[in-house]
């Protein structure tokens, strides 16, 4: 695979919009998969301020962009500007992938599929699963959608604000398995949990030494439970280290990150893409970053 892509007169465009966008890892994994397929296509970061969202969409249509990823702060704001929004994106309340179709812009959300991929690889029967989801933000909504898709018997979302929990609950009015809980209720929920998902930022920089659950709380969980942290850096998080020490199955957020991207790229390209190449590109990127960080502490 060449490290530098040749841009021609026919090179087509994909990209990601956000504000800020400098931190995005999407170009790393998407361009690696595009290079592996040998396509004359490039995926670029586009900084788009909230006030310019509609103008950016018109510009993308004018230049024939094939599609784009959407990140903070546009995931909700873009929805009314699209021609069609998928049912899963409507349930989650956010769009992370937009495709150009004959009928205009089609928005969907690939996070739920990304979340499910590492679970499906375990090849289990999920019907009797009791999921406890820590946090009630955007990622938690994708997790709820994924758990609902697999038909979990109980989906219990834990948050700090009863108002925000009530709003999340309203997103799935017909989903009887979904209940919402304040953190104080955790001692009642943990002993019955068979899947625990961290969808809070607790455990990532600048809280890399923290865990959303205390040692005592982790010990209330049955050892056969699966611990799933959506955080992909650091790997493993404190939460997953605690789980592994207990002998539990631990899943980190890298698989979800790669899989949600792979689903989006295969939608734009209308062909399968290499998840392994995308994953390796991210691992190489992380290794390079930690090498640079090490060098800068040695040579400040
Ligand atoms: P978000 O919308 O900001 O939601 C964060 C949630 O965490 C909120 O419910 C927030 O509670 C809660 N929270 C924050 N700090 C907390 C604390 N100290 N104690 C308890 N709860 C706390 O963020 P998000 O987009 O859902 O992302 C959440 C995490 O998932 C991040 O670490 C992100 O990197 C990760 N993520 C990973 C992937 C992937 O592909 N692997 C995809 C998306 C997100 P309040 O609502 O009360 O503030």
TrEMBL record:
Q: Which pathway does it operate in?
A: Metabolic intermediate biosynthesis; chorismate biosynthesis; chorismate from D-erythrose 4-phosphate and phosphoenolpyruvate: step 4/7
Which terms under GO biological process does the entry name?
amino acid biosynthetic process; aromatic amino acid family biosynthetic process; chorismate biosynthetic process; shikimate metabolic process
Which InterPro entries has this protein been placed in? Answer: Aminoacid_DH-like_N_sf, NAD(P)-bd_dom_sf, SDH_C, Shikimate_DH, Shikimate_DH-bd_N, Shikimate_DH_fam
The primary gene name is: aroE
Cross-referenced PANTHER family, in alphabetical order? BIFUNCTIONAL 3-DEHYDROQUINATE DEHYDRATASE_SHIKIMATE DEHYDROGENASE, CHLOROPLASTIC (PTHR21089:SF1), SHIKIMATE DEHYDROGENASE (PTHR21089)
Which sites bind NADP(+)?
135-139, 230, 253
Tell me what this protein is called. Shikimate dehydrogenase (NADP(+))
Residue positions binding shikimate: 24-26, 71, 96, 111, 232, 260
Assembly and binders: Homodimer.
């Amino acid at each position: 695979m060449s490290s530098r892509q040749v841009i021609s007169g026919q090179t087509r465009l994909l990209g990601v919009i956000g504000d800020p966008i400098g931190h995005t890892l999407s170009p790393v994994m998407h361009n690696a998969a595009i290079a592996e397929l040998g396509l004359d296509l490039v995926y670029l970061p586009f900084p788009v301020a909230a006030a310019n969202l509609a103008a950016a969409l018109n510009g993308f249509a004018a230049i024939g962009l094939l599609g784009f990823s959407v990140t903070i702060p546009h995931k909700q704001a873009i929805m009314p500007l699209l021609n069609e929004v998928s049912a899963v994106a409507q349930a989650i309340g956010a769009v992370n992938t937009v495709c150009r179709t004959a009928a205009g812009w089609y928005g969907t959300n690939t996070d739920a599929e990304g979340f499910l991929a590492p679970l499906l690889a375990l090849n289990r029967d999920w019907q009797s699963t009791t999921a406890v989801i820590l946090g009630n933000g955007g990622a938690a909504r994708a997790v709820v959608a994924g758990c609902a898709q697999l038909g979990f018997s109980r989906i219990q979302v834990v948050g700090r604000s009863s108002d925000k929990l009530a709003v999340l609950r309203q997103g799935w009015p017909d989903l009887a398995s979904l209940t919402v809980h304040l953190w104080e209720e955790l001692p009642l929920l943990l002993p019955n949990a068979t899947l625990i998902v961290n969808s809070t930022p607790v455990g990532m920089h600048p809280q890399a030494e923290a865990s959303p659950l205390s040692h005592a709380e982790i010990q209330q969980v049955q050892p056969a439970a699966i611990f799933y942290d959506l955080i992909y850096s650091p790997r493993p998080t404190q939460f997953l280290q605690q789980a592994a020490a207990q002998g539990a199955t631990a899943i980190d957020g890298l698989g979800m990150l790669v899989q949600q991207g792979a689903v989006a790229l295969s939608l734009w390209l209308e062909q399968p893409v290499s998840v392994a190449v995308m994953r390796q590109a991210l691992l190489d990127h992380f290794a390079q970053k930690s090498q640079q960080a090490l060098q800068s502490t040695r040579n400040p």
